[in-house]
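Quick question about two entries, pasted in order.
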Amino acid sequence: MRLDAGSVDAWRFEELLRLYQLKAHSVNDRPTAGERYRMLDEALNCWRGNAFESFPGASWATAEVTRLTDLRISATEMRAEAALELGRVGEVIAVMRQQVEENPGREESARLLASAQYRVGQQVEALATLRRTREFLRSEFGIDPGQRLNDLESAILNQSLEFHRDVGAEDSISLRNPQVGAGIRPGRATVATAAAFYPRQRAAIQATATETRADGLRVIWLMGESGTGKTALVAGVLGGLAAEGWTTASGQCPEIDGAPPAWVWTEILAELGGAPDPAESRQGPIDPFTIAQAVASRCRELAGGGPVAIVLEDAHRAEAATLQVLRQLATWLHREPVLIVMTVRGSELTPLLRATEAAIADRTTERVQLSGLDLAGTREITRQVGLASIDDETLRVLHRRTGGNPLFIRELSKLLAARGDLIGLPESIRAVLIERIERLPAGVLAVLQHLAVWGRAVDIDTLADLSGVPEESLVDLIDTAAAADLVTFDGCGRIMPDHPLIQDSVYDSIPPLRRSRMHWNALALMESREPGGGADLREATALAYHSARGATRTTAPHALKHVTAAARICDSLGMRGDATRWWRAAVGLHELADHTMSSAARAERESLLDTLCAFTNALALDGRVRAARAVQERALGLAESLSGHDQVVRALTCWRAPVVHGIRDWYPRDSRVHDALVSAIARENSRHDEAWLLVALVFETPLGVGTDSARERAARALETAQCSGDLELVCAALNAAAYTTVGSARLDRWRVLADELLRVSLDARSLDYQALAHYMRFRVACRDVDLAEASRHAVRALECAIRGESQQLLGQLVAFPAVVRVLRGEVSAAESDYRRFGAAMARTGITDEEAIRMTGAITIAWARGDLSVVLNRVARWFVAEPELIAQFYVLALIHAGDPVRARAIFHEYDRVADGFYWQLMSAFRAYAAVALGEVRAAGEMYDALRPHSGTFIGFDSGATTFGPMDNLLADLAEVRGDAETAAALRADAETLVIDVRRSLDSLAPLLDSIDDMCGGSTSDKSERLR
């Protein structure tokens, strides 16, 4: 029986698809979206149920059913694409949702469904669709979705997805289906194409393109591992060449077996607007020679009007036919202006590929290697994924950890944006790296695992002892790993992972029990070589590293010896972050060994107490105030259970870190520690210990209700300390004396105490207290509006704080660049700096993070002349602390247009408490008195604030400013009817502002240095990004 193509639905369906493909790739008569929709709809209407539905179990039908079903799915996707361009979003959602459910691995179906969902406002559903597809691909096949799905996810997250609708036959949809010369294949990367990406490599390709115009065909091998940005780079380059008049096309070598020979060249030919003879295509797969003829012919035609650029992607997957076509084209087109770029994974070069490269060496200009982006490229990717601002230090750490790999940067940037740190490893990165490793010969992964467990560069002898692999075999395995860019060598020839993410990926791939055992074996090896333990920091921390990660309940006491030794060495060297980490590990080992149980031996529990006390101080010195408080309370509970006075004193006085008001802020305070201190002081016989207890009690006393008693205790402690010869105690007592100094004369007293503290701390070689002394002098200079003096002390405080890793003062001083920008009138830049200040202070563990954030919000609102924007937040603050915040709340209500409520609160809270914020709150009350016309209150405030003439309101904090005091005094004088005094004060205020601006200009280099020090100096940042 002979039937024509229209008599069998399957044949008719395929014929209609073939006609569609020919018309869709036509250069001069390309169909509109509506036409494409109708053509595909006609083809899909050939379907009635499933393919060969009457023969579900027939073995002869299985392959054909699969082929036809795939064609049907592809046609449905293409019709949905056209429907989206026509705005038929509801139809796309209905059809694609079912198709995605039936075929969860179809990336194009998921992309179309998510795009449609986003268009109708279902952003959450769109992201969920993409997430489910990603999880399916990873769980079923161990792969990540393609670049097109990743780009769509980024666009949705950044609200940057553009809609293109075809409403007429003349409309172009070039973004989705590029015509010849568009230069970017549908479905390939279009995100990372900015000039910031690989400028040197981009210039090399551009130079080769120039040679191609003049001398004829050139071939470039673009080498780079997965995720290095090969596709992004060539997409950007092709876009630039297309703008210069080049005809461009690209194709991707198939990822699956069974594709027709040289299929990628068929794709490229279609993009170039050519096609093999239809008669040839109907007879079966086209041979490579015919394809080469067709491509060469089309290139010659196009070259008559301008040069041609072709990209062949993923050439490491190219089979023999594809490479035969390349070699033939290099011969036939050698005089034509044709540039061919081959993208290849360097670690997957096949013998066929190497042979092809050698065969066309005379046409190959060079290999272009992509080894990672620079800092500018890294910043661009962080911006694309939604990190609008990232400081330089975080950027450097991100770049160092990823090795500049764009995929890794992208994934870790998303992690940073979501969680605020880079702790952990995204599964997408781990999958890419492990897949690279598993393609290597057996044994490489095991050696890399030993290298990852060792945790640092290792010599070949040690690695042989760790792995048990004979040296000759080990050398071969290491060479293989090095060739795959997985390991490198330091200056001493030691082996190390090529970059940290390889270390992390391999380490995480080891089962936990085996990993723990490997650590303990590494410890045993180190101990056999160093029987006395690590004498220096490097060896001590290595021993502690393996001890902490390899210990069991039985071996924990032995591991404690190494971990506490490392913690003490870090303490002695002022390495606060490292000391905190090791003391935390030591506490964990005590818990593992059951030393927390009441049945544990007294010596073991006392050892735990010592560890908790050391951990408390390490946390406090590292700026982790809230955590330090919790650990100290735990230490106190353990000490009380041991029923020893000395143990209780040890727990109560273990906090030896300097204290700055606003950081160790524990409102509401727990009376437990306060009561324990009072009780311990009453029983203490040692004056030295009593002084330490008095200092601790000062910082436990809420100022305002116990200021007088706290001041008296600080004086007693200072008197005892000065007679004791204990310089650390003298510094702590001077700190307590400064802490209890409040009121309008506070900063005058601080000047005297700061000078004495600086002298004693220099003798004691205490960087922490030197930093505090300079900070106190900085605050005094801010009060006096002596910007030169303030800047000098800020620099010295920062230098000491950085060297001593004093997170507390680093956090406080981050506000200074912000207030400087307010004084300069750079309000938007100041707003960004205040966010940085809030984040820095939050890391110190203060209880009231909102109060710190309000500092910046109020300052910015004042600078913009509208406090109503913070009214709701201030109202909540007023409910919590009415005495403190009432005066500012009144002013915010006035700005919000509620003078009645403002006046009622103004009269209810008619007194400003004499505390740390007296001057600032008095100024707010004065502003409110002027606005409300309260003459008597205005007179009182004028008299109270007149001694502060010549200053900036709030600037004594070094963190905020609310204008010249003399402008406020002038307003108050006017309310009192004294116009002459008001005019003189306004003239003084104007002079002060001019002087300050002039001073800021002259101090610009020093102030920029302070800004840099505040932006990238904290070890806490490095700790978060480690």
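Here is the second entry:
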Amino acid sequence: MEQINIIINEKTLTGNPGETIMELAGRNGIKIPSLCHDRRLVPFSSCYVCVVEVEGGRGLQPACSTRITEGMVISTDSPKVQKSRKTSLDLLLSNHYADCLAPCTQTCPAGVDVQGYISLIEKGLYSEAVALIREVNPLTAICGRVCVRPCEVACRRNLLDEGSAVGIDYLKRFASDRDMGSPSPWMPDIPEPTGKKVAIIGAGPGGLSAAWFLQRKGHKCDIYEANPHPGGWLRYGIPEYRLPNDIIQKEVDAITGLGAEIFVNRRFGADLSYGEIRDKYDALIITIGSQRGTLLGCRGEEAEGVFSGIDFLRNMEMTGQRYDFTGKKVAVVGGGNTAMDCCRTSVRCGAEKVYVIYRRTEKEMPANPIEIHESKVEGVEYMFLSNPVSVNKNDDGVVRSVTCIRMKQGEPDDSGRRRPVPVKGSEFEVEVDYILAAIGQKTDVDFLEDVNSHAAEGKLEVNRWGDIVADPGTLQTGIHSVFAAGDGVTGPATIIEAVAQARTAATGCHQYLTGLPVEPVKPEFLSRKENMKEVTAGMLENRYIKQQRQEMPVLPADKRNNFDEVELGYESDEVALRETARCMECGCTELYACELRRLSDEYGAGQNIYGGSFRDDEPDYSHPYIELDNNKCILCARCVRICNELAGANALGLVQRGFSTYVAPALGNSLTDTRCDSCGLCISTCPTGAITENVPFKPSPLKWDTVRTICNYCSVGCKIILHHRSGFVMRVTGARGEVNDDGNICRYAMFGYRYINDSSRIKTPLLRENGRFIPVSFEKAISLAAQKIRESSPGESAFFGGARLSNEELYLIQKLARAGAGTGNTGSFHYLGRGTGYRYAADVATPIDQLDGASRIYLLGADPGAGNPVPGFTVNRLRKVKGVPVEFITTQSSSPMEYKVDRVWRIASYYHFVKALSHYYLDRGMENRLYINDNCTGFDKYREELLSEDFADIFRETGLSSIDSFEEFAQTYNKETNAIIIFQECEVSDAVCLELLNLAMITGKLGKISMGLLALKEKNNSQGLFDMGVFPGILPGSAGQFSSEAEAHIAGIWGLDRIPGARENDLIRMLDSGALKNLFIFGEDPLGCAVDRNRTGKWLSSAGFTMVQDYFMSETAEMADLVLPASLPAETGGTYSNTGKVIQQFEKFFDPPGKYPGWMQLISLMDHLGIKNGRSPEEIRNEIFSVLSCCRAPGPYQLRTTNGDNANLMFSHGCDYLVKRFDKEYKDAFRNQV
């Protein structure tokens, strides 16, 4: 093939004929962005984000669809290209009415992922919720109690008629308290030290937070605090009934646990000089707060009995003594949270009357409404629209009253609140004994001269309000190594604002310490609905069910004459769960995966660069597994195309034209009205959050941990990625694996993972005693199982291995039977009673990846979409894109496959149809003699016996009415060079398998590349049953039981004289007769999956002892005497063999229940029986390799005569509880939609 020479970005490259610019660039590591391109699909060129500049070309060209030609000179990143891409993104965003982040998170000064941690709380992942919060706010338990909650003000629940936001702070506190009370409270990993040291002035919220963030970067932090204890305003300004000191100390301990040290009673500028800090540290962060109180600013404020509110609160904490206000009247002036703390503290100090004097209305009070409510419950009285004008003293200079003036509301001021205006002549007098002024605070910078006198360069300055001057984006001061944060920079603010400032200062400080430019962090692009249209109550009406807020339990009012914490916290998980349900999930779940957001951020695109109309549709949740949100759709048509080209369902389409175009289900208002297979391919290709999974738990925009493993449903062997937090799986996506190189997965993998999160999993061995199960230790359970084996004769025990188990587990099961129990009674209910045809077909299966070379595909009884969809995607792609004809042979009167094939053959019998084809070829001498002579045995006998049967009789049984159409089929199949027949084992019998093998040999198609047979098995390791010898009469490696060489070899490895044998018919006979005393069933549910439940039930009930190993209490487990917990693939590690005999390894990532995986249970059981084994999956695998070393290369293929059909499917769902469970869930989900 002649190569094509082109130049991309001044680099000479060679490409292949037919290759696109994007494909060639990608092969050479040159990234070209695109939103409409998916490597699985034919290029579409709709987004125009992938445009490039081609020298001499007219305009910019889409790289995804433009084929390379000789001598092309291409620029992928010129200014013209960048401008065009930005314009394309601007246009897409102009019709993107969606929120990247929920309003609560956008409003939080620290940017706490509220929606994320609420989702984690809903799942019971309290420590994970705390970890998420502490990414930006280390003071979780503190803020859960005393945050001013701007997030709740922004909560859209407020727009509904419930009257209250989600209890965000209550939930934060709940998770924090649960984490604090756990045996191992969450702590981050401590990084390697950088060798840099930072001094921090002030151990308040800003200083503590700065230390947290810097310690997590590896920098050593020393905090200097002027007071006797750390906490700053948290300890000295907030009373214990709101924020207990032990909570503060626990938060402090977490920060010192990272390595920070705190030095108390050290005042900056007094006994701690900047000169000392400059010499010992690489940087300094000043977080001093604003803790100097102010008085009333009116005549007489110097009177005895007038205090600043913060001095009043601080003195009580410093001295440990409460004021005695018994019988006294106290006036608190102000409307903020400090005023609330003062008035409620005064009540606890015994005051007879407590007044709050505030110059505005209650609605405009900045204090937390809950604090206002609780103060009223405690007896505080309010004087609104009132303002002190003078303090009146007695002759001793002690306050006796305060004169106030009435106020009225004027025009709004800079805060947005209406300005209070005095009403002339409205003065009135209030008798009081004490006045607490809670109207403002100032920053004390008495260290300024000390700093500037020791500074080597630059200057520390303050503004006209006396606050430290710092760059607002980095909080770097005029001295490059000095940063400042918190109230000392902003003036009096909130705890959460101090935390946010600390993070900014820590980021700037980290940049400085690591030699990076100290510059503000670039804000990320965020789509906001409010950028396009305000969200109103009417827009949310009828979309959410009414859910009243779960209120905070509090101490009764008559029990509050002390400083015990008033708010008690949610009392149970159930209460917290109910409150999490109120979250409206405003933010997009695809925040971290959205390609539109990533590119908009990269190219500086904006949401309201272009005006005009935009879509504002209701999201569609009608499909039980798939959500559609057209507001987020960018019309890339990837979902439409993948549904057509791969799924073959054509369930989605583009409706209307021009600016009115939108994606919609093809045949109705819901996907459930279409031919949608629920494959999930549309979800996998969507570049935004327009199509997402409809999950049964609260979704959230989280960064997940990922685990790469193998799907444990069907036999294709798809690599998948589990997206999880602490083992709770929230999503499954496809990985590019050995078999599914394109990353495709089906509904079983994409939606069938939810059992992993089911808390009803078996977690410990269970022993039946007196009719009920009791937990026992693994040692007791294994000892009992071993005892039952020893007490019985070898022939009285049988061992069954499920087709979902790993090769290593299956190998150990048959070894346990043969070497441990001395019996050949080993097999799988999955194949029980179904003959050996499947085994022979498995030996010569065409690998799935060879489907790409097929010239014609026949689906014999196979509906891949029903049980093995991924090969079905390949078949659909070949048909749609390459034009490969697909024919469907079925005994069903109707099937969804009819719409995905070119021709349907309706027959009555697969067996007679295949046999008729063989008869037709042999009778006419059309067999491939050359192939047969070179590769096959038994042909003459088979030919003789088949031709002795009457073709007319065989043909009659096929159910076909036209011999002409049959002959057409026969001629086409025989002449087709690369014809592949795909069949599903659950649809055809053992005899059909054998006859298919005979047919493939007669036509010379068996065992050749891209032709022959592809058997789709039901389970992920059905092939492993044969390979590992979990089949009567079969040894590991599929070696025949009576192969003396194999027997001797394996017996030698196991240390045995001989290996006991058994036949499948013997196993069924013993089950029917009740001859089996002990049944050991690993990973199967024969009763739950039985076609004949009565027969299977008798097998179980007649056994004296039944042991079952499974994930859940299946119907079989419910009948067992002993139940062992099974381990999931990601808890086990090992290998699977797919239907094409591709062996794939997967790793262990999680600990199973009891930290006792399935293979370890088997080894322990054999230990009790004196059988030696490897002690890890790797060692077991090495033993398997040594056993298989005796296997010879396959001999010639053998034609085998059959004497009639023998359909005998005894168990459905692959005899697997998981498959049965998901199949039922799937059917029920759609039944509930009706």
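Reply: DSSP finds 44 helices and 46 strands in the chain. The mean pLDDT is 94. Hope that helps.
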